[in-house]
């Protein structure tokens, strides 16, 4: 193994704590070439597509990366904002709020954000935290439900970075927060606020990102965690039975994925005479292509096309105040034991560094 030369922590430097808020990643632009780069990295991750490389590589590079980028780029173009991709906009904004709210609570921490695929990369942002003097880093994925394809893949990127580092900081990893009372409460408050304005639907559809069905049989807790989130949200809303349905969206390829699938379920509901549905995507902490395009555009059209009368999409948590408080609480719980309320003392650090250097010179 070759380790990079890197600026070491300096003796006596004030120890700092960092938080890395990590999301999936998004293309740099809504163009075929940007999509090809993004999808090649994303779909080339063995955590995401668990097929032997010899089998998957010819399909990915020979077919998918020739066909999908143009189609996907056209979809991204419909949701792109002047500030860029919504996923990037929300991820960055959430990190800024987290920094501010931890500061208000008296914590001296540095919060940065990264993307598992594309930029800013996990390695680049960990380098930046280290360069800022962070000797302790909390890895906080933007996924409430643990999944090997997402959460573990973020951890892989951190391990790969640490494997090349000489002086590795103390690391902590947040696994999941699918049943966190603050997260559930923020979701429930969002739904209740929508209902206060528009009345209650016949059915609340809670749509989570899908995964290949075999990952459940192989022990991935993702499916169970989605159902637990849904149950807790339903309890918080006081709904039960046929008042809500859990579905899985974004199926990729022909294999069986977690069921029931979101869009066919909505079509079936419309055909059964359900006139109004509300759809919420509790697994996504920020709106992105999967919610704004796939749900709010495609699924809406499918439901209305099948005879449904009203389709309400309830936006993701994004910069919701209750959610940002919950996220700050989650970070705070995981920082416990790290002395973040002690201001890094630059003067003491400099004095101690001088002493260490003087000692070194004397020997
Ligand atoms: C085999 C393919 C895929 C698996 C497995 C998968 C799991 C998975 N993904 C998310 C969250 C997001 N996925 C997003 C986009 C997206 N996902 C896939 C494929 C798989 N996802 C693709 C090809 C795409 C890109 C869009 C497209 O071409 O259709 C996003 C949004 C990104 C954005 O730029 O807005 C998120 C977020 C989870 C949580 C998950 C497993 C639990
Ligand atoms: Fe995905
Ligand atoms: Fe999708």
From TrEMBL:
<dbReference type="Pfam" id="PF00762">
    <property type="entry name" value="Ferrochelatase"/>
</dbReference>
<feature type="binding site">
    <location>
        <position position="290"/>
    </location>
    <ligand>
        <name>Fe(2+)</name>
    </ligand>
</feature>
<keyword id="KW-0350">Heme biosynthesis</keyword>
<dbReference type="InterPro" id="IPR001015">
    <property type="entry name" value="Ferrochelatase"/>
</dbReference>
<feature type="binding site">
    <location>
        <position position="209"/>
    </location>
    <ligand>
        <name>Fe(2+)</name>
    </ligand>
</feature>
<comment type="similarity">
    <text>Belongs to the ferrochelatase family.</text>
</comment>
<dbReference type="GO" id="GO:0004325">
    <property type="term" value="F:ferrochelatase activity"/>
</dbReference>
<comment type="function">
    <text>Catalyzes the ferrous insertion into protoporphyrin IX.</text>
</comment>
<keyword id="KW-0627">Porphyrin biosynthesis</keyword>
<dbReference type="InterPro" id="IPR019772">
    <property type="entry name" value="Ferrochelatase_AS"/>
</dbReference>
<keyword id="KW-0456">Lyase</keyword>
<keyword id="KW-0408">Iron</keyword>
<dbReference type="GO" id="GO:0005737">
    <property type="term" value="C:cytoplasm"/>
</dbReference>
<dbReference type="GO" id="GO:0006783">
    <property type="term" value="P:heme biosynthetic process"/>
</dbReference>
<keyword id="KW-0963">Cytoplasm</keyword>
<dbReference type="InterPro" id="IPR033659">
    <property type="entry name" value="Ferrochelatase_N"/>
</dbReference>
<dbReference type="GO" id="GO:0046872">
    <property type="term" value="F:metal ion binding"/>
</dbReference>
<keyword id="KW-0479">Metal-binding</keyword>
<protein>
    <recommendedName>
        <fullName>Ferrochelatase</fullName>
        <ecNumber>4.98.1.1</ecNumber>
    </recommendedName>
</protein>
<comment type="pathway">
    <text>Porphyrin-containing compound metabolism; protoheme biosynthesis; protoheme from protoporphyrin-IX: step 1/1.</text>
</comment>
<dbReference type="InterPro" id="IPR033644">
    <property type="entry name" value="Ferrochelatase_C"/>
</dbReference>
